Structures are given as structure tokens and as C-alpha cells.
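Hi C.,

You asked whether I'd gotten around to modeling the 199-residue construct. I have! Everything is below, sequence then structure, no commentary in between.
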Amino acid sequence: MKNYFLLFLLISALMLNCEKKKEEKQDEPETAATVLQQFADKAKDMQTREKVDPVDFRKLKEFLPEKIAGFKRTESSGEKNGAMGFTISTADAHYKGNEDAAIHLEILDTGGIAGVATMAMAAWTMADIDKETDTGYEKTTSLEGYKAYEKYDSKSKSGELNLLVADRYVLNVNGSNVTMEQMKGIIEDLNLDKLSELK
């Protein structure tokens, strides 16, 4: 969780300098500063929404079943962390499949800082990504009707799948010795509609 707060602070600092960079490069084509300005505008808009406290991590743990999509849970944990007046609840679990197949599933609730913090932990929601290499790919997409990001390497048979639910819940699936379809199966077996309604 410490890394998330460091990322949050970094992005906040970048946004504070965004307007200055934009003024310095008014006559240039779209730059990273322009993208950051768009990021800042989005954050400002989201911060006008009603703030809520993140749910108890124990409720999030209920969304981590013992068995899911052919994988069996080997361990799980949850916690609530706060810094600078902000709080985030997290629940995560490790799963084992056939042979060396392994999945790590994490659910985070950004709660009262849904605006900036959600984007800090799911910056891909502000981007349009579509990239391929000889052994893999990464792209922004949608899954089960929610914004998603997927990245996979066929050589190492590893990847990640991220999802944003109700503009506050961030789901991260990381897998090794698995296919992308197996990781998507994890998401598809979760009750995302119930999660989106969780208060």
C-alpha cells in the first residue's frame, strides 16, 4: 500500500505543475503536459462528487471465494491503510491451479478519495492503449461492462488484468503460467454487480 500513496503524491505534484507546463508549450503539439492537464481536469471533476468512507476490508474479503474459475485459494488477507487523511481498504488472495498456474487477486476501495486516488491506481482509465510485441500485447478494453486493462506475455505465460468498478473499486488480477482467458474467468466468476452496490 505504501507504493500507492507514493504514486498518489507523485501524481498530485505533477498536476500542480501541469498548468505551468501547458503555458510554456502553448505553440507545441500535444505533449505529456497536455495529457497531465486532462488528468487534472478529470480529477477536479471527480472531486466534486460526494465523498464516502471505504468499506470495511472484511466485506471485500467476502468477494474472494475459496474456489474460483478452477483455482483454489491458498491464502488471503485484508487491511485498511491511511495517510494524510486518506484511507484505502484492500483485500487480496493467492490462488493455485493445475501444475504451476498461480493467480493473485486484489480488490481495493478508494472510498473518499475516489477522484484522484482511483486514477492514481488505475491511470490506464485515462488512456487509450493498444500495443503488440512478438510475444505479447497490452491494451485498454472493457470486460463485463466495466473499463479494463489487460497485458499478457505468451513467452512467460504471465500477465495482468485490471478493472474499475463503480469509479471506486479497483480489481487487479496477476497470473503466472496461465492464459489471459483464465484470468478473465476469474473476473467473470466474481459478482461485480454486487460489488458495485457495496457500501
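If it helps when you're writing up: Residues 2-46 form one domain.

Thanks,
B.
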